[in-house]
Amino acid sequence: MTVGIILIIIVALLAVFGFYLAHYSMTLKRQTLEETRGWQGERVDISWYDEAVADNYTVRSYDGYLLHAQLLEGPSGCPEGKYAIVTHGHTHNRFAVLIYAKMYLDLGFRVILHDLRGHGENEKTFCTFSIREGRDLAVLIEDTRKRYPDLKVLGIHGESLGGATTIASLKYHPKVDFAVDDCGFSEITSIMEAGLKGMHIPAFFVHIASLCAKIRYGYFFHEMRPVEALRENTVPILFMHGEKDSYIPCSHSVTMQKVTKGYSELHLFPGAEHAESAYVGEENYRKYLEDFLKKLALIR
Asked: pTM for the whole thing?
C-alpha cells in the first residue's frame, strides 16, 4: 500500500468522524414535552402551572420556520403591562423553565415560554448554538410587542443555550428593557473541546467537525459566539452562574460581563453545577432578580 493511499484513507476516516461529530453535536436527541415536564415536576412544585391562564400560539420566524409559544398569566393578571420571554436550554423545551416563569409571575409579569428551533413542538432541525436561535428570539420579541398592545416592560431570560440565545439576540438591537443570562456560553468551541477531552478524544477533532458542520449545515463552530453581540450592547444584563459548573464554566459569564457596554451584574452560586443555580439557591436567585429589576425601576 502506497503512502498516497494511506493518506487518502486517513483523510477519509477523519472526514467520516468529523461529519459524525458535527451531526451528533447539532442534532442531539430532544426531550418530549412530557419528559421535560416530568423531571421539572420532580424538582420543583409546578402545580401552579395547571391553574395559570395559558394561551398557545405560533410565530413565523425570519425564514418562515414556525415557532411554538405560550403566554402564561397568573391569577392576579398583569395590570402594569410587564412581560418576560423565558428561553430553555439544549435538548429541553418550554417546560424546563417553569421555575423561572413562576418567579416572574410572582413579580406581576406575564410570561412567554417558547420552544427553541428544533425543540419541543417545533419541527425537527439542527441546532446552531445561538445563531439562528438568537434571530428567532429577536423575531419573537418583535411579535410580542405587536401582539400585546398593553406591553410597557419587556425582558428576556434564558438558561444555558437559552442564555446564549438571549445574548445572541441582542445583536439585532431588540427593544427590550433587560436581559438575564443564566449559565450561557460566550462561545461554543471551547465547550466542545472540553467535551471531547472528557471522552479521551483529541480536542483538534472539534476543528475537523467544525469544517464538516460548515459543509453539511452552513455554519462553523467558531461562528457560534454570542459574546460578539455584546460589544455595542446597552441593554442591562443580569448574569447568573453556578460556581461549580463543569459544563459551561462561570468564566464565560465573567468574560461576557467584561465585554458588554451596558449596565450588568454577575452573581455566582456556590455549590451549583450547570443550570442548578435557581435550584440550589432559589431564595437568593429570586432576590437577585427582584433587586436587579428594582434598580432599573422596572418594578416597585
From this structure: 0.96
Q: At what angle do helices 98-106 and 282-295 cross, to 10 degrees?
A: 50
Query: What DSSP element (H or E) covers 182?
Result: strand 178-182
Q: Are 125 and 118 in contact, with CB atoms under 8 Å apart?
A: yes
Looking at 222, 247, 267, the residue that finishes a domain is: 222
- C-alpha cell at position 151: 406591553
Residues 282 and 135 in one domain: yes
Residue 216's closest CA among 142, 125, 279, 144? 125
> Do 186 and 225 meet the contact criterion of CB atoms below 8 Å apart?
yes
Residues 14 and 123 in one domain: no
The rounded distance, in Å, linking the Cα atoms of 263 and 236 is 5
Is the confidence at residue 1, as pLDDT, over 70?
Answer: no
Task: Give tens-digit pLDDT for 175-233.
Answer: 999 999 999 999 999 999 999 999 888 999 999 999 999 999 999 999 999 999 999 99
C-alpha cell at 161: 443555550
CATH number where 176 lies: 3.40.50.1820
Q: Pairing state of beta strands 66-73 and 110-114?
A: antiparallel
How many domains is the chain partitioned into structurally?
Answer: 2
Long-range contacts of 292-297 (CB under 8 A, 24+ apart): 292/178, 292/180, 292/236, 292/238, 292/265, 293/107, 293/155, 293/178, 296/177, 296/178, 296/236, 296/263
First and final CA of the chain: distance in angstroms? 77
Answer yes or no: do 216 and 158 share one domain: no
